[in-house]
Amino acid sequence: MCLAIPMRITAVEGFSARCEARGIQRDISLFMLQDEPPAVGDYVMVSLGQAVRVVSEEDARLSWELYDQILAETPNA
């Protein structure tokens, strides 16, 4: 099973993007979304360094709320 993390795009250069989530920045590939490339300010789900889909800001926020809830209930997390 893979876990995708919602991140906000802060810069785009070709099929590469700089993303941010909770103060962490990563460079990711947009290659899988080349038919409808996301833009700066869009939120994407990132898995293994690849943006796999565009999501709304609300969906990104809800995902983080669920991840926080899971971590809060996981012993030794």
Task: Provide structural commentary.
With 77 residues, the protein is of the alpha+beta class. The protein has a single domain (5-73), classed as SH3 type barrels (Roll). The protein has one helix and five strands, in the order βββββα. The protein has one helix spanning 57-73, and strands at residues 5-13, 16-21, 24-29, 43-47, 50-55. The protein has a five-stranded antiparallel β-sheet with strand order 3-2-1-4-5, with helices on one face. The two termini are 18 Å apart. 14% of the residues are buried.
How would you sum up this structure in a few lines?
The protein is built from one helix and five strands. The protein is of the alpha+beta class and 77 residues long.
The main sheet comes to:
5 strands, antiparallel
Domain module tally = 1
Average pLDDT reading:
94
User: Share of helix among residues?
Assistant: 10-25%
The CATH topology comes to SH3 type barrels
Number of helices: 1
Essential attributes:
alpha+beta, 5 strands, elongated, 1 helix, SH3 type barrels, single chain, 77 residues, five-stranded antiparallel sheet
List the helices and strands and how they pair.
Layout: E1 5-13, E2 16-21, E3 24-29, E4 43-47, E5 50-55, H1 57-73
Antiparallel strand pairs: 1-2, 1-4, 2-3, 4-5
